[in-house]
Amino acid sequence: MGRIATLLSTTARRLALDAFTIGLMVMVLLASVLPASGDAAVVLGHVTTLAIGLLFFLHGAKLSREALVAGLTHWRLHLLVLAATFVMFPLMGLAIEPLALSLLTPELTMGILFLCVLPSTVQSSIAFTALARGNVAAAVCSATASNFLGIFLTPLLVGTLVVQGAQASGGSGLDQIWKIVEQLLLPFIAGQLLRPWIGAFIDRHKPVLRYVDQGSILLVVYMAFSESVNEGLWQHISGTALLVLTVLSCVMLAVALGLSAWASRRLGFSKEDEITIIFCGSKKSLASGVPMAKVLFAPSALGMIILPLMLFHQIQLMVCAVLAQKWARRGEAVEAVPVDAG
Q1: pLDDT for 256
Q2: Of 9, 53, 184, 236, which has the maximum CB count within 10 A?
Q3: What is the value of pTM for the model shown?
C-alpha cells in the first residue's frame, strides 16, 4: 500500500494536478486502506444517495433558461455534438472491445464501454469553450441536452452494448431508466422549477456550491472503491492494466478530437462553433457517470467499472486545457474559467 501512496504523490507533483483530482486519488487511497463495510457502509450508502440527489438538484438550479433558449437555434451544432457523444463514442467502444478483452479484465473492458455511452460534461465543456472564445450559449445548450438525453440513452446503450454489466445490476432496461429518472432527473427538474426563487442565491454562491458538487462525487468514488476493495480490487489490477487503460484513453480522446474537428470543418461551421463542437463532443461526464454507474452496475464491480472513466476524465481535462489556452490566443486574452468536476 506504501507503493500506491508514493505513486499517487509522485504523479500529483509531476502533473500539477488540481485539488479535485488529488481528492479523487485520496478517496481511492482511503478506500484501499480503510474501506467502508458493515453498518458504516449502509449508512454511507444512504448518505451517498442523498448527496447525488443534491448534486443534480444544484445542476438544475444553476442552469439559466435564457442561455438555453439562446443556444437552441444552433440545431445543426447540437445534432453533431449528440452524434459524437452517443454514436461515435459507442462505435469506438465496440471497435476497441476485442483488444481490451485480450489485455484487460472483463470489468475494466465493461468500464471502457460504459465510458463510451456516457453524456458529455457540462461545467468543463462550458468553461473550456468560454476560455477558448467559442460559442458559449451553444455549449450550454449542447452540454445540457447531452446530459438530459443521457438519462434515457445511457441505460439503453448499456443494455445493448454492456450486456454483462446490465445483467449484473439486475432489472430490465426500463427499471434502470426509472431508477435514473428517480435519482437524477427528478432532483434536476426540481432545481429548475425552483430556480426563480433560489437562482440568485445559487448564482452568488457558485464557488462555494462547487464544493458540494465535488464532495458528492468524492463520496460516491469512496463508496464504489470501498466495495470493490472488499471484493479484492487490487488483486485484479496490475500496472500493465493501468498503462493499457491510459493508452486506450489517449487514443479514444485523440480520435474524438480529430473527428469532431474534421466534421465541423466539412460542414462549414465557424471557428467559434467548431470550438464548441470539439469540447462538447469529445468529453465524458464524471459528474453524471459515477452516479449512473452506481444505479446500473453491481456494487462489487463498481470500482473497476468507473476506473476508466476517472482516468479518461483527467486526461481530457489536461488535453482540453492546453487546446483552450492555444485557441484563446487567437485574439485578445480572456479570463480563465475554473473547471469543475463535470
Answers
A1: 96
A2: 184
A3: 0.75
